[in-house]
Amino acid sequence: MATGRTHRPATRSRGIPEATVARLPLYLRALTALSERSVPTVSSEELAAAAGVNSAKLRKDFSYLGSYGTRGVGYDVEYLVYQISRELGLTQDWPVVIVGIGNLGAALANYGGFASRGFRVAALIDADPAMAGTPVAGMPVQHTDELEKIISDNGVSIGVISTPAGAAQQVCERLVAAGVTSILNFAPTVLSVPDGVDVRKVDLSIELQILAFHEQRKAGEDAAPEGPVPPVSAKQQRKGPDGDVPAVMPA
Amino acid sequence: MATGRTHRPATRSRGIPEATVARLPLYLRALTALSERSVPTVSSEELAAAAGVNSAKLRKDFSYLGSYGTRGVGYDVEYLVYQISRELGLTQDWPVVIVGIGNLGAALANYGGFASRGFRVAALIDADPAMAGTPVAGMPVQHTDELEKIISDNGVSIGVISTPAGAAQQVCERLVAAGVTSILNFAPTVLSVPDGVDVRKVDLSIELQILAFHEQRKAGEDAAPEGPVPPVSAKQQRKGPDGDVPAVMPA
DNA sequence: CGGTGTGAAGTAGTTCACAGCC
DNA sequence: GGCTGTGAACTACTTCACACCG
After folding, report:
1. Using H for helix, E for strand and C for coil, what is the string for A188-206?
2. Most A CBs within 10 Å: which of B218, B232, B236, as the mutation test of the A interface?
3. 220-249 in B: which are within 8 Å (CB) of A?
4. CATH fold of A94-205, please?
5. Which residues of this UniProt protein bind NAD(+) (chains A, B) (predicted)?
């Protein structure tokens, strides 16, 4: 999964578990597909399969929202789409700004999945004056100087950061100062934000590293390559978890 | 957090909890930064702050890898960098292919964070013959026809899918058939794969939807807009979780 | 002392299995 | 008969708090 989060750990919003919230968009996507094919109802089993989870989990998840199904029948597709959309807050319009219009920022600006879910790209912002004017995804790129004005004029509360790592914290602070309270961070840095501001992090290289970990396991335990980095100083014993770390790197 | 995962739930790789694995790249990044500033040792407290977690969690995480710290002192930065890299399998070279060179694929191809961690982009693949030859990030884009040959010639075991949703499952199947066993999926679809293949999913719009959920809470419970979608038929009672769902949408 | 390493306690999330309703 | 909704059991993860060691 994409990863990281920074959350007030108390006040778990109105009793819906975080893990459930994270799956609602998945259900919503599956339901939307069914809706487009004019399927009137689904069972938890079918919907779970489409969303890639098991049916007990799905039923438990829905039970936090209310009793929206019909025993012996299943769930009404249109009705559930509406309920989940409302729960997620997608029945309203969310203006977002994207800061940092490099390759990734441009990809985000062009990404159709935003508009289709109540998210509206209110502005594209970049620090490079040379980009100003050049349209990306049919919108003009505006200069960072305008950031505060754009945020307040448009009532933006969600910001996307796709700048280089070095610029991210500073951009974050300006966004927050201007009134943004939710941030989606693509820059490979830990952002620090005041309480009350949510940060979600998407980190491409972290995802690959997690895959590499599992991939390595599949390949079987090969001998580790020689250990180039000695420890602080001579030590007596290093206990590896269960017997790797041959005899190479410590002592 | 980026999201989704598809894992053999048994065989939790050699006893390192999945949640810990997901944080190792974070620690590694923080350690690398310290290493570049030639800091010789860190305490769990300092490192935890840099990685954005609490120190108890960090110490527990490291305890799964082995006893790599020194009581009263902290952790040797270089040594830990090596241990975590090795644990994650980053001491070896991982050739990856990126399939689907649209905006996002191009962004990924240009992303520096891959190369710096043992990941090498072995090929860029796209279905559009018009793209063949046009270099992206200094590499030629190759046609999908070559996919199988590229995978086996380069011994690729990790594939990145950044195609449109409609093409993703088919691409996935070809990758798997050709020998790929780990997939990072950016397409907004649930991929189905045989056992033994890992899929991680990064979904931009899901992350925004999760933010919107929390954002909505902060704004306070406003009246929900009128409910445009009636349920299956007239019903007696709908119990919302604790008293929303005014009187509008059911019955 | 100071800071790691870790059992024990606490909390969150998942799965089971079945009562209850359509 | 079929399928939802949910307590109860279980598993995973986190946090506490302190023994132990450099």
Report:
1. CCCCCCCCCCEEEECCHHH
2. B232
3. 224-225, 227-232, 238-242, 245, 249
4. Rossmann fold (3.40.50)
5. 100-105
CA distances from A31 to A22, A25, A34, B66 (A): 15, 10, 5, 46
Measure the CA–CA gap between A175 and A181, rounded to whole angstroms.
Answer: 8
Helix (H) or strand (E) holding A69: strand A69-70
Q: Which amino acid is at B189?
A: T
What strands, in cross-sheet order, belong to the sheet with B74-76?
B41-42, B74-76, B69-70
The tens place of each residue's pLDDT in chain B, 251 residues long, gives 343 334 333 333 458 999 999 999 999 999 999 999 999 999 999 999 999 999 999 999 999 999 999 999 999 999 999 999 999 999 999 999 999 999 999 999 999 888 888 999 999 999 999 999 889 999 999 999 999 999 999 999 999 999 999 999 999 999 999 999 999 999 999 999 999 999 999 999 999 999 999 999 998 755 444 344 344 333 333 343 433 333 223 32
Cβ atoms within 10 Å of B58's Cβ, excluding its own: 24
H-run or E-run covering A46 = helix A44-51
Q: Of residues 225 to 244 in chain B, which lie within 7 A of strand C by their beta carbon?
A: 236
In angstroms, the CA B87 to CA B91 distance is 9
**Among A162, A170, A172, A164, residue whose Cα is nearest residue A198:** A172
The domain ranges of chain B are 13-88, 94-205
B178, B151 Cβ separation under 8 angstroms? yes
Q: Can you tell me which residue has the tokens 């962004």? A: B107
- Classified as helix, coil or strand, B244 is coil
Architecture field, domain A5-88: Orthogonal Bundle (1.10)
Q: How far apart are the first and last CA of chain A?
A: 38
Please check whether residue A230 is in contact with residue A249, taking contact to mean a CB–CB distance below 8 angstroms.
yes
Q: What is the largest CA-CA distance in chain A?
A: 70
Tell me, what DSSP letter sits at residue B61?
A: H
